[in-house]
Specification:
589 residues; RNA-binding; Threonyl-tRNA Synthetase, Chain A, domain 2; alpha+beta; five-stranded antiparallel β-sheet
RNA sequence: GCCCACGUAGCUCAGUGGUAGAGCACUUCCUUGGUAAGGAAGAGGUCAUCGGUUCAAUCCCGAUCGUGGGCUCCA
């Protein structure tokens, strides 16, 4: 066995990068008029951007993939060589590869220009690559799209092909299964199937209609959120959906955020806009009277619905919409309180996220960008406060240098879902800008007026996005505490309807969410539907149950049935609801 | 916004230059059945919208609106 595969000796990034080259080679062979540009490795795969007049169609992908396999099977050695920069520019210019020539001109003059060749194909590349095309076996081309040269829409349009590559066919298959699974639990699909929400053309793109079942879940989330906020020392407020444009001039949003603000409307000669943020309102509440250092910290929280103009092409289900509700809060504190406040927010956010079944996070600390307001000293202190709070809370984090917003440093939290995907939800941002713009103050111990530090924070980000994330995380099978319907009663025949009514009444009297399926259908049919609706508990009621005054329970996740007394069942449901018990979350194999 | 694809019944989708079909859902009837689909009948569509080509357009062309995959940006 001398042709034993060697792919295990290369890391995935190298394999993917080499596969991108292999694809470019195949494309050049099949479509010689095409020009190559760049082909980087991305998460789970790679892409390569080509310049040509006509876009690739799915049949092209099949042809390209077949050619790639042929080339790989030729066992071509991949050879690196370095050449002088002018030669490289000339070479690619002569080949008509003006994009490559342009890249070379942009490369640091100290860096060597390296070429990689395999058979008839030579490409500019930093490498590294696998040593022979035989190492490239487990790949698949996935999709095409358009992209701009260097990501700028003023530049030529390029045709992009996405693909994926792995060490082995087994890994490849597993990845493709994961894609299938993600498609199955797409919140847009489940939203329709489970009757949770719709986004309707006549209402408008990016505007969500929450159906009764989706609303139920949202209401439960909100209820939990409000209760915990009161417990944690927040005051809840409500503020309007629109305000005079002058407010947004003061806040600076008309200047810096204008392109996301809906066009103004004229009301009695005054311009008003829909609010893109809640902060100016909370600041106005702060300003409604004189504040003492004794009042601080002040924490105003609101499930505030904001409207932001997003370009039509970026809208996506509930994840990117034009009207959404932030679980927003603004904290006003003295500088000495900053670290403590951040620390409390961190504890709080982890508590909330855990309740929803998220236990793994990526946390980023973003520091001062080039353009900023406030003094370097303030930034320094605030950044240290954030960092100390993270350390104190024993949260692992990465520093994102220079990635803070112009008005202050921030902490971002991404949560990992059951398919190992990360979702940006929580954010904690220090703001030196708005307190100054609105001139808010408090009276210090010594009688002087001081400017409070303001913190913006959202735990779930937006309810729409968080809900979409939950739907995908649970694949639509919400845990008992969140399920819109916790139990469905399935009488065997209409003779058992009275018993079902009685059971329903008792469950409802215990604050449980119950439905009855009294349709003239066989039990198998009712079970199938309840199963597809992902209702946690099915309650089968027939002669046996009426006679013994018990209920037969079938759980969504297991096919076994269990018979128990009604009170016992109620107790179990109540306990699971109270403890926010989360069953094993469905995972793809 | 830009590139590409798509838009047919409530849903999922066939289909044709001569004004349309299936399955599921819905309504009615039969069936009273113990753990993933019992049977029959019926109703339901300006084929996204507006214009053009044509004797004739759901089909071809254009525009608009919307959706999807990306680009870009973010919560």
């Amino acid at each position: 066995m001398n042709d034993k595969p060697q792919q295990e000796t290369f890391d995935l990034e190298t394999i993917r990068h080499s596969t991108a080259h292999l694809m470019a080679q195949a494309v050049k062979q099949l479509f010689p008029e095409t020009k190559v540009t760049i082909g980087p490795v991305i998460e789970d795969g790679f892409y390569y951007d080509f310049f040509r007049d006509t876009p690739f169609v799915p049949e092209d992908l099949e042809k390209i993939e077949a050619r790639m396999k042929e080339i790989a099977a030729q066992n071509l050695d991949i050879v690196r060589q370095e050449i002088p920069r002018p030669d490289a520019v000339k070479m690619f210019s002569d080949m008509g590869e003006n994009f490559k020539a342009e890249i070379i001109e942009g490369i640091d003059s100290a860096a060597p220009i390296s070429l990689y060749s395999q058979g008839d194909f030579t490409d500019l590349c930093r490498g590294p690559h696998v040593d022979n095309t035989r190492a490239l076996k487990s790949f698949k081309l996935l999709s095409t799209s358009a992209a701009y040269w260097r990501g700028d829409e003023r530049n030529p349009v390029l045709q992009r092909i996405y693909g994926t590559a792995w060490h082995s066919d087994k890994e490849l298959r597993s990845y493709l299964r994961r894609l299938e699974e993600a498609k199955k639990r797409d919140h847009r699909k489940l939203g329709k199937e489970l009757d949770l929400f719709t986004i309707n053309d006549e209402v408008g793109p990016g505007l969500t209609l929450w159906h009764p079942k989706g609303s139920r879940v949202r209401y439960l989330i909100e209820e939990f959120w409000r209760k915990e906020h009161y417990k944690n020392g927040y005051e809840l407020v409500f503020t309007p959906h629109a305000a005079r444009v002058d407010l947004w001039k003061t806040s600076g949003h008309m200047e810096f955020y204008r392109e996301n603000i809906f066009s103004p409307m004229d009301i009695e000669g005054q311009e008003y806009v829909m609010k893109p943020m809640n902060c100016p309102f909370h600041i106005q509440i702060y300003k409604s009277r004189l504040r003492s250092y004794r009042d601080l910290p002040i924490r105003f929280a609101e499930l505030g619905t904001v409207y932001r103009y997003e370009r039509s092409g970026v809208l996506h289900g509930l994840l990117r919409v034009r009207g959404f509700t932030q679980d927003d809060a603004h904290l006003f504190c003295r500088p000495v309180q900053l670290e403590d406040e951040i620390s409390k927010v961190l504890h709080f956010v982890l508590f909330i996220l855990r309740a929803f079944g998220f236990h793994e996070y990526k946390v980023y600390l973003s520091t001062r960008p080039d353009k900023f307001v406030g003094s370097e000293d303030d930034w320094e202190k605030a950044t240290r406060a954030l960092e100390n709070a993270l350390v104190r809370t024993q949260i692992a984090f990465e520093v994102d240098p220079g990635e803070g917003v112009f008005y202050g440093p921030k902490i971002d939290i991404k949560i990992k879902d059951s398919l190992n995907r990360f979702w940006q939800v929580s954010t904690i941002q220090v703001d030196f800008n708005l307190p100054q713009r609105f001139g808010i103050t408090y009276v210090e111990e010594n009688g002087n007026r001081e400017q409070p530090i303001m913190i913006h924070r959202a735990l779930m980000g937006s309810l729409e996005r968080f809900f979409g994330c939950l739907v995908e995380h649970y694949a639509g099978a919400f845990p008992v505490w969140l399920a819109p319907v916790q139990a469905i009663l399935l009488p065997i025949t209409d003779a058992h309807h009275p018993f079902a009514e009685a059971v329903a009444e008792k469950l409802a009297a215990n604050d449980l969410r119950v439905e009855k399926d009294l349709r003239n259908e066989k039990i198998g049919f009712k079970i199938r539907e309840a199963q597809l609706q992902k209702i946690p508990y099915m309650v089968i009621l027939g002669d046996k149950e009426v006679e013994s005054q018990t209920v037969s329970i079938r759980k969504h996740r297991s096919k076994e049935t269990r018979s128990l007394g009604l009170d016992e069942f109620i107790e179990q449901l109540r306990t699971e609801t109270r403890d926010k018990t989360i069953d094993v979350i469905d995972q793809p194999e």
